Amino acid sequence: MKGAGGIVNAPKPLAELQAVFAAYEAALMANDVDTLDRLFWRSEHTLRYGVGENLYGFDAIAAFRLARPGGSPQRLLTRTVITTFGDDFGTANTEFLREGSAKVGRQSQTWVRFAEGWRIVAAHVSLMAETS
């Protein structure tokens, strides 16, 4: 299938984005701040909406990670959908359960391949409410 950005889920970029997403998840669970920082685009245009914070720009995201005691709560991914559009753009969306909680969490990431590799340019994390 071909989209506006090129072939949707071409095998090579899809495998690359799946691998970098797995590296991100491993770094998140290990609180590997250096790897997490490396995987975000170092730009004032990068944003991350978290469960309890809205962060604008790489510097704000990096400062949040450094100040977060113990890192991210441990979680189990329950469903992940990764889609690439052409060779240099993709999205990663996942549902998760936090350890000790029955609430369903959701994470969305927009990835772009730059000269230095795949980087997150926008991210959103939320927990589902009882009703909408």
Which keywords apply here?
132 residues, 3 helices, 8 strands, 28% helix, 39% strand, globular
Write the layout of secondary structure elements.
Layout: E1 2-3, E2 6-7, H1 11-30, H2 33-39, E3 47-49, E4 54-56, H3 58-67, E5 75-84, E6 89-98, E7 104-114, E8 117-127
Parallel strand pairs: 3-8
Antiparallel strand pairs: 1-2, 3-4, 5-6, 6-7, 7-8
Helix pairs in contact: 1-2
Model description:
The protein has 132 residues and is of the alpha+beta class. It has one domain: Roll (Nuclear Transport Factor 2, Chain: A), CATH 3.10.450.50. Helix content is 28%, strand content 39%. The strands form two sheets. A six-stranded mixed β-sheet has the order 4-3-8-7-6-5, with helices on one face. Strands 1-2 form a two-stranded antiparallel ribbon. A hairpin with a 2-residue loop joins strand 1 (2-3) and strand 2.
What is the β-strand count?
8
CATH class: Alpha Beta
Beta content comes to: 35-45%
Total number of domains: 1
The run of helices and strands is EEHHEEHEEEE
Overall mean pLDDT stands at 95
Class based on secondary structure composition and strand pairing:
alpha+beta
**Major β-sheet strand ordering:** 4-3-8-7-6-5
CATH architecture: Roll
Helix content: 25-40%
Report the span from N to C terminus.
Answer: 34 Å
* Major sheet details: 6 strands, mixed
- The CATH topology annotation reads as Nuclear Transport Factor 2, Chain: A
Shape: globular
**Low-pLDDT residue spans:** none
Q: Work out the radius of gyration.
A: 15 Å
Q: Count every helix, treating DSSP H or I runs of 4 or more residues as helices.
A: 3
